[in-house]
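Onboarding guide, step 5: your first structure request.
Type a short instruction followed by the sequence, for example:

Predict the 3D structure of this protein.
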Amino acid sequence: MTVDQASRTSPLGSRAAQLQRTPDGIRLEEVAFLTQLNLRLDVDGPALAAVEGVLRQELPVRPGTVTRAGDRTLLWLGPDEWLLVAPPGEQGQLQAELRAALSPAGGVVVDLSAHRTTIDVHGPLARDLLAKGCSLDLHPSALTADRCAQVLLARAPVILVPHEEGAGVRLLVRSSFAGYVADWLLDACVEYGPAVGHDSGERGAGR
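The system replies with structure tokens like these:
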């Protein structure tokens, strides 16, 4: 069975224009269809080297840390669990390569690309906005670019991944919670001023 790529609809696909209307200092953007592969393996066995050999990237082994290689990011989720985030459309090849590598070494790889969507919160007020619904210390000195965090944001489970540069933060949120989280973010923006249009071409400005 094949999937018509053009007919895919992201959880917030119909909300793009609404997400672009936020106060100065904050910009919201859904990044849809990212590859997301869940990895489970024993770091003390041969599986670690097998995975790193396929990805040409070190697996983060310290709690709540990330490693990056080009446009791929590995997130530490637990002592034997990681999430690989990569550009859209790479899940098929990556999953096949990782399964082949893990087959003799022991380990599991599961495609969760449809399980979550991604919301990027850009701008100098990004962390202030998120702090309104999260008990975690989001100051850049605490949540640095090499870290990630599994938290509740306004009671919705999300994974926070700081942007490599600037104050922005990426939210990985379950598809079933995406609408709720988007509504909360838009509502929480109100105190920062009137909503203005943000062209998607501004990406990277004021991150």
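Each response can be followed by summary notes, for example: The chain has two domains: 15-33+114-198, 35-111.
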